[in-house]
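Appendix B. Chain record.
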Amino acid sequence: MDTTLSDRRILVTGASSGIGEATARAIVAAGGQVALLARRTDRLDVLAEELDGIAVTADVADPEVTRGGINRAADELGGLDGLINAAGVLRGGPLATTDPVEWRQLFEVNVLGVLHATQASIPHLTAADHSDVVNVSSMSGRRLGSTEMAAYAASKAAVHMLSEGMRRELQPDGVRVSVVAPGFVRTELFGERDTDLEQRLGKRADAVGLSTDDVATAIVQVLAAPPHVVHAEVALLNADQ
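Structure tokens predicted for this chain:
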């Protein structure tokens, strides 16, 4: 078995499905230990049992619950030297007709969730010899694909800027910060609400999207890099995209 992440203790948000789940599996396959944070307790418990990991039921939009869950996970693992911010939601629609509640959900999870989980993890990450924060963004954070996805793209652009600020702030304390920005990925996000927009995006993802395993492989490569090498940004696409 590959042991490039041997002895690493890594917490993954959004771990009950999609990129988060695939990344947790890849970390364990590479020799690491995982704590799995997500809202869906039933799926989380099954995965934690399979991976011999720690299940943490929490919504990253809630800072206090997130902090408590991360502290408990760090205690059970004996510390943390990695955080993967993979929790995210997809919402889209025309500016003129979108319910503002959906914009709030986008930014509470995609932006504030990254801040909440990272802030809660900092005391544990800085106590390790060297550690990583990997923020899962999107190519939508680098370019606007369609006007219907402008708010989503804005949330992901915020993740890019936050990642750069985190990198500069935390690097002196031995914490590397990277942002991973995939294009279309075949995930459950496109089927959460079965809207016309999500159906169209889902078909596009099925046709030209990366697999979640592709993204997980890139994240493991970031984690396994020599301590002096920082992948400030990793952007990846299917060759057909």
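Further analysis of this model is presented in Appendix C.
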